[in-house]
């Protein structure tokens, strides 16, 4: 008889290996006894990584179980999006993993596939899209709206009434100034916020901003 469910962390590099203990802790907290695999398409055969079996996607897909849950631990948001579509198309479910030391306040909506590392705080009345990554000590304050495949590096400070579009990357230690209900601070799709940047006004789609206050990086000066 096949097992009712198995779980996997897709990606066995630094991101995946950092999230595996959180995933393991979550199953323990929920009293779920199940195997957790690493998925890594560079592997040709079953191996062990940090005490967990690791195999490629095709081999994981072939395992005979009723349900499969996958956390995508890939930093590149475009790759996350492609993998999320494939995983769901293949009949598996995106897995949301939250550390025991998170704080999630009232009326928070988090779509499937999120990875919330230790000491992450999500304020009240926040909406977050698919496959959000929030690294150590990051926070999202009240009344924020975050799109799909957004990444917070460690220590990101996102204050209230901020709207972040899909595929935004926010570097370690960056700070986003609070907006208002009538005029939220907006960060456009695919924008990159540099490490330690202090964002005080709207950021257009597709640009990189750096510095304090954050300004658009002029790539012609490289």
From TrEMBL:
SUPFAM superfamilies referenced in this protein's UniProt entry, alphabetically = Trimeric LpxA-like enzymes
User: In this chain's numbering, which residues are marked as the site (Increases basicity of active site His)?
Assistant: 143
Q: Where is the PglD N-terminal domain?
A: 8-86
Which residues does the entry assign to the active site, renumbered to this chain? 142 (proton acceptor)
Q: Kindly indicate where the leader peptide sits in this chain.
A: none
Sorted alphabetically, which keywords does the UniProt record give?
Transferase
Sample GO molecular function, one term: transferase activity
NCBIfam families associated with the record = NeuD_NnaD
Protein name, as recorded: Acetyltransferase
């Amino acid at each position: 008889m096949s097992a009712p469910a198995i779980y996997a962390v897709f990606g066995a590099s630094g991101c995946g290996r950092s999230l595996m203990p959180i995933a393991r802790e979550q199953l323990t907290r929920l009293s779920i006894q199940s195997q957790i695999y690493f998925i890594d398409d560079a592997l040709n055969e079953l191996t062990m990584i940090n005490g967990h079996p690791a195999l490629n996607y095709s081999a994981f897909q072939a395992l005979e179980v009723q349900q499969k849950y996958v956390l995508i631990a890939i930093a590149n948001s475009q790759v996350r999006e492609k993998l999320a579509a494939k995983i769901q198309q293949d009949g598996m479910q995106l897995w949301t993993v939250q550390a025991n030391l998170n704080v999630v306040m009232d009326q928070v909506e988090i779509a499937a596939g999120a990875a919330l590392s230790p000491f992450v705080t999500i304020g009240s009345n926040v909406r977050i899209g698919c496959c959000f990554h929030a690294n150590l000590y990051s926070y999202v304050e009240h009344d924020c709206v975050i799109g799909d495949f957004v990444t917070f590096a460690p220590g990101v400070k996102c204050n209230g009434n901020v709207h972040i579009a899909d595929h935004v990357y926010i570097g370690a230690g960056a700070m986003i100034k609070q907006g208002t209900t009538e005029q939220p601070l907006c960060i456009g799709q695919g924008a990159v916020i540099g490490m330690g940047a202090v964002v005080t006004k709207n950021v257009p789609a597709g640009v990189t901003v750096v510095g304090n206050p954050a300004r658009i990086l002029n790539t012609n000066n490289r």
